[in-house]
Amino acid sequence: MARAKRSAETTDAMRRELIAAARAMIARDGIHGLTARGLAQELGWAVGTIYTVAPSLDVITLEANAAELDALRGALEAALDQAAPDPTAQVLALARGYLAFAESRPRNWSAIFERQAESGDGPPDWYQARQLALFDLLERTLRPLAGSATEARWAARSFWAALQGFLALSMAGHVERVAEDPETGRRQDLAAYLVEMLLSGLAARRG
Predict the structure, then answer these.
(1) I need a surface site. Which of 117, 177, 187, 201 has the fewest CB within 10 A?
(2) 44 — alpha (psi -120 to 50), left (phi > 0) or beta?
């Protein structure tokens, strides 16, 4: 029994080490640079050992992305703690926190969406729970401004879609490319402007 317990603990430790290495490799080389052979070399393991710890490279990618979602949630919660308690300031803090996180880990951030686009399967329930936790954070922040849980749910998804689209275009350099004034091309300022317009629309809906 003690031997089995030690074996499980060892496997858990190896899995954590594997996922940390996968996140580091994605940060350096992007999602397409993540390979079992590369991970094995990074860790000093045999390639076969990789698949005794995780069943497939896709599972490794999912777990690495889930770890990024957890880190993002932590960053957003920290941004909320540092912001003024006013709901508008809190929403702006979430937007700025999201952009700052994506800018600090661009390849890891991109991997979340690249994996979803390339996989024919939807994410498993445990992964969707991570995503829903992020939406819940935004919904709770928007609730005082939306007036109802249903309106907050719709607003959260609309805000996320708008900010996500803006960020994807901006990270690819398209937003700054069309800006006439270089000063208006600052990503954080443009994102704040976008969120303020969305908040104005939400206020108008409430009359």
Answers:
(1) 117
(2) left
